[in-house]
Amino acid sequence: MFVKICGLRSVEHVEAAVAAGADAIGFLLSRSPRQVTPSEAAVLAATVPDHVLSVGVFATETTEQIRRDAEAAGVDTIQLHGAYKHEDFQALADLPVKLIRAIAGAEDPNTDCGAYGEDLLIVDAAKPGSGEPWDWTRLPAEPTGHWLLAGGLSPDNVACAVAEARPWGVDVSSGVEVSRGMKDPGLIRDFITAAKQAG
Ligand SMILES: O=C(O)c1ccccc1NCC(=O)[C@H](O)[C@H](O)COP(=O)(O)O
To answer: Where's the N-(5'phosphoribosyl) anthranilate isomerase (PRAI) domain (predicted)?
Structure first.
C-alpha cells in the first residue's frame, strides 16, 4: 500500500512521516492553509530521502508558474488538481519529474491512470484538502493502474476505505491534523500503520 502524506510544513513532521514509512510527502505550492513558499518547500524537500517522493501540489497556477516553482522547490514530483487538461500535462512532460493527476472521484469518469501521461492518479473528494469524506463506493468508473484514494481519510477509517475501494494507495491531509494545517506526528504514524496493515 503506497501512502502519501500531504500538506507538511515542518522538518519535524517530514521526518516523522519518513520514519513511519511514508512513500510520498506533499508540499502545497498553491493557495491553502497548508501553503508553503517554494523556498520553504526546498528546505523541506531536501530532508526527504531518495526512496520517498517529494511532491509539489498545484491547483490554479499556470504551467509556466508550475515549472518555476517546482524547480525552485526541488521536488521530484508535480501534482495537479483541478481543471488541468491533457495539454497542461504535455507541457510539463519534458521535466525530469513524475506527474500526479488528481480528480474529483464522484464527478470525473476519466479514471485510467496514465490517460494524461501521469505516473499516479489521485481519486479525491470534490473539495481537495477539506477532510470531508465522500462516497468512494460510487465511482462513475472503476479506476485502473496506480491510483490513490483521498478525501476525508483518517487513521480510524482508512482500513475500511481500503477494503471498500481497493486502491493501490492512499493520500491524506486533514485526517492527520489536530487543527486546520497543523499536522500531528502521532496521527501521521497511526495513519501510515493502519494503511500499511490494510494493504
Ligand atoms: O490541502 C489543501 O489545502 C489543498 C488545496 C488545494 C488543492 C489540493 C489540496 N490538497 C491536496 C491533497 O493531496 C490532499 O491530501 C487530498 O486532497 C486529501 O485531503 P484531505 O481530505 O484533507 O485528507
So the answer is: 3-193
